[in-house]
Amino acid sequence: MAVGTQLGLLLWKNFTYRRRQRVQLAIELLWPLFLFFILISVRRSHPPFQQHECHFPNKALPSAGTLPWLQGIVCNVNNPCFRHPTAGEAPGLVGNFGGSILSRLLAEARQVLNRTEGQRLLRGFARLLPALRQLGGSAAQRRALPLRDYLRENETFSRFLRTNTSLPPALAEELLGARLSPRIV
After folding, report:
1. TM segments (predicted)?
2. Which listed site, 11, 36, 88, 143, has its alpha carbon 20 to 30 Å from 123?
3. d(CA 103, CA 107)
4. Interval 45-56: pLDDT, tens
5. Burial of residue 100 (number of CB atoms within 10 Å: 0-12, 13-18, 19+)
6. C-alpha pair distances (Å), 168 with each of 22, 149, 157, 171
7. Which residues face 26 on adjacent strands?
8. CA distances from 5 to 13, 158, 176 (A)
Protein backbone atom coordinates (compact mmCIF):
# COMPACT_ATOMS: atom_id res chain seq x y z
CA MET A 1 0.00 0.00 0.00
CA ALA A 2 1.44 3.39 -0.93
CA VAL A 3 2.11 6.15 1.55
CA GLY A 4 -0.46 8.48 -0.01
CA THR A 5 -3.17 5.82 0.24
CA GLN A 6 -2.32 5.15 3.89
CA LEU A 7 -2.41 8.85 4.73
CA GLY A 8 -5.75 9.26 2.94
CA LEU A 9 -7.29 6.33 4.83
CA LEU A 10 -5.96 7.65 8.15
CA LEU A 11 -7.44 11.11 7.50
CA TRP A 12 -10.80 9.60 6.47
CA LYS A 13 -10.86 7.48 9.65
CA ASN A 14 -9.99 10.52 11.81
CA PHE A 15 -12.69 12.64 10.11
CA THR A 16 -15.32 9.89 10.64
CA TYR A 17 -14.35 9.54 14.33
CA ARG A 18 -14.48 13.32 14.89
CA ARG A 19 -17.87 13.62 13.18
CA ARG A 20 -19.38 11.09 15.59
CA GLN A 21 -17.83 12.70 18.75
CA ARG A 22 -18.98 16.31 18.38
CA VAL A 23 -18.47 17.34 22.06
CA GLN A 24 -14.90 16.05 22.09
CA LEU A 25 -14.24 17.86 18.79
CA ALA A 26 -15.55 21.13 20.22
CA ILE A 27 -13.37 20.77 23.33
CA GLU A 28 -10.30 19.95 21.25
CA LEU A 29 -10.85 23.08 19.16
CA LEU A 30 -11.85 25.49 21.95
CA TRP A 31 -9.36 24.49 24.66
CA PRO A 32 -6.23 25.89 22.87
CA LEU A 33 -8.21 29.05 22.00
CA PHE A 34 -9.22 29.45 25.65
CA LEU A 35 -5.56 29.15 26.78
CA PHE A 36 -4.49 31.60 24.09
CA PHE A 37 -7.06 34.18 25.28
CA ILE A 38 -5.78 33.79 28.86
CA LEU A 39 -2.26 34.58 27.65
CA ILE A 40 -3.52 37.66 25.79
CA SER A 41 -5.38 38.95 28.88
CA VAL A 42 -2.34 38.48 31.11
CA ARG A 43 -0.13 40.29 28.61
CA ARG A 44 -2.54 43.24 28.44
CA SER A 45 -2.91 43.50 32.22
CA HIS A 46 0.88 43.44 32.79
CA PRO A 47 2.59 45.29 29.96
CA PRO A 48 6.28 44.55 29.42
CA PHE A 49 8.85 46.93 30.89
CA GLN A 50 12.42 47.62 29.98
CA GLN A 51 14.98 45.98 32.27
CA HIS A 52 18.52 47.23 32.03
CA GLU A 53 21.36 44.86 31.28
CA CYS A 54 22.47 43.23 34.50
CA HIS A 55 26.16 42.84 35.44
CA PHE A 56 27.03 40.69 38.44
CA PRO A 57 30.29 40.88 40.38
CA ASN A 58 32.66 38.05 39.62
CA LYS A 59 33.00 35.18 42.04
CA ALA A 60 36.06 33.00 42.15
CA LEU A 61 35.76 29.24 41.99
CA PRO A 62 37.41 27.05 44.65
CA SER A 63 40.22 26.26 42.23
CA ALA A 64 41.35 29.92 42.43
CA GLY A 65 42.28 29.44 46.07
CA THR A 66 40.47 29.37 49.38
CA LEU A 67 40.74 33.10 50.14
CA PRO A 68 39.38 34.39 46.80
CA TRP A 69 36.63 31.78 46.91
CA LEU A 70 35.56 32.80 50.43
CA GLN A 71 35.74 36.48 49.44
CA GLY A 72 33.44 35.81 46.50
CA ILE A 73 30.94 34.14 48.80
CA VAL A 74 31.10 36.66 51.66
CA CYS A 75 31.32 39.90 49.66
CA ASN A 76 28.56 39.00 47.18
CA VAL A 77 26.12 37.26 49.48
CA ASN A 78 23.14 39.35 48.26
CA ASN A 79 24.17 38.98 44.57
CA PRO A 80 23.76 42.65 43.50
CA CYS A 81 22.95 43.66 39.93
CA PHE A 82 24.80 46.65 38.40
CA ARG A 83 23.92 48.69 35.31
CA HIS A 84 27.51 49.01 34.13
CA PRO A 85 30.18 46.32 33.65
CA THR A 86 32.02 45.36 36.83
CA ALA A 87 35.79 45.28 37.28
CA GLY A 88 35.92 41.51 36.99
CA GLU A 89 34.50 41.53 33.45
CA ALA A 90 37.65 42.93 31.86
CA PRO A 91 39.24 40.40 29.50
CA GLY A 92 42.26 38.63 30.94
CA LEU A 93 41.54 39.76 34.52
CA VAL A 94 41.24 36.78 36.82
CA GLY A 95 41.43 37.98 40.41
CA ASN A 96 40.34 41.49 41.37
CA PHE A 97 39.97 40.68 45.05
CA GLY A 98 43.06 42.65 46.14
CA GLY A 99 41.04 45.64 47.33
CA SER A 100 38.33 43.71 49.11
CA ILE A 101 37.62 44.05 52.81
CA LEU A 102 38.89 40.57 53.62
CA SER A 103 42.18 41.08 51.79
CA ARG A 104 42.77 44.41 53.51
CA LEU A 105 41.93 42.85 56.89
CA LEU A 106 44.45 40.06 56.38
CA ALA A 107 47.11 42.50 55.14
CA GLU A 108 46.64 44.72 58.18
CA ALA A 109 46.72 41.71 60.52
CA ARG A 110 50.01 40.65 58.91
CA GLN A 111 51.44 44.15 59.45
CA VAL A 112 50.37 44.19 63.11
CA LEU A 113 51.80 40.75 63.78
CA ASN A 114 55.11 41.63 62.12
CA ARG A 115 55.67 44.52 64.54
CA THR A 116 57.34 43.95 67.92
CA GLU A 117 54.05 44.30 69.81
CA GLY A 118 52.54 41.67 67.57
CA GLN A 119 55.49 39.36 68.18
CA ARG A 120 55.09 39.86 71.91
CA LEU A 121 51.37 39.10 71.59
CA LEU A 122 52.14 35.90 69.68
CA ARG A 123 54.64 34.84 72.36
CA GLY A 124 51.99 35.48 75.02
CA PHE A 125 49.54 33.29 73.13
CA ALA A 126 52.23 30.61 72.78
CA ARG A 127 52.67 30.59 76.56
CA LEU A 128 48.91 30.50 77.08
CA LEU A 129 48.30 27.62 74.66
CA PRO A 130 49.70 24.77 76.85
CA ALA A 131 47.58 25.89 79.79
CA LEU A 132 44.47 26.02 77.59
CA ARG A 133 45.23 22.56 76.23
CA GLN A 134 45.55 21.26 79.76
CA LEU A 135 42.25 22.84 80.77
CA GLY A 136 40.39 21.86 77.60
CA GLY A 137 41.32 18.17 77.53
CA SER A 138 38.78 15.39 77.93
CA ALA A 139 37.42 14.51 81.37
CA ALA A 140 39.94 11.65 81.66
CA GLN A 141 42.84 13.96 80.79
CA ARG A 142 41.63 16.84 82.96
CA ARG A 143 43.14 16.58 86.37
CA ALA A 144 42.86 18.78 89.41
CA LEU A 145 45.74 21.27 89.34
CA PRO A 146 46.98 23.26 92.35
CA LEU A 147 45.89 26.88 92.51
CA ARG A 148 49.50 28.09 92.17
CA ASP A 149 49.63 26.54 88.64
CA TYR A 150 46.86 28.91 87.58
CA LEU A 151 48.64 31.97 89.02
CA ARG A 152 51.88 33.67 88.14
CA GLU A 153 54.52 33.95 90.82
CA ASN A 154 53.95 36.93 93.17
CA GLU A 155 50.68 37.83 91.49
CA THR A 156 48.22 40.02 93.38
CA PHE A 157 46.21 37.15 94.84
CA SER A 158 49.19 35.11 96.01
CA ARG A 159 50.89 38.24 97.44
CA PHE A 160 47.61 39.15 99.13
CA LEU A 161 47.39 35.71 100.76
CA ARG A 162 50.98 35.90 102.00
CA THR A 163 51.08 39.50 103.24
CA ASN A 164 47.68 41.16 103.78
CA THR A 165 45.69 38.38 105.41
CA SER A 166 46.14 37.34 108.98
CA LEU A 167 46.63 33.73 107.89
CA PRO A 168 49.71 31.86 108.96
CA PRO A 169 52.17 31.27 106.08
CA ALA A 170 51.56 27.50 106.21
CA LEU A 171 47.82 28.01 105.68
CA ALA A 172 48.45 30.44 102.77
CA GLU A 173 50.73 27.82 101.16
CA GLU A 174 48.06 25.20 101.75
CA LEU A 175 45.47 27.43 100.01
CA LEU A 176 47.83 27.93 97.06
CA GLY A 177 48.36 24.17 96.93
CA ALA A 178 44.59 23.44 96.89
CA ARG A 179 43.65 21.55 93.77
CA LEU A 180 41.09 23.02 91.41
CA SER A 181 39.22 20.79 89.03
CA PRO A 182 37.67 22.73 86.14
CA ARG A 183 34.39 21.19 85.09
CA ILE A 184 32.11 22.27 82.34
CA VAL A 185 28.63 22.21 83.73
Report:
1. 23-42
2. 143
3. 6
4. 988 888 778 888
5. middle
6. 115, 21, 15, 5
7. none
8. 12, 113, 112
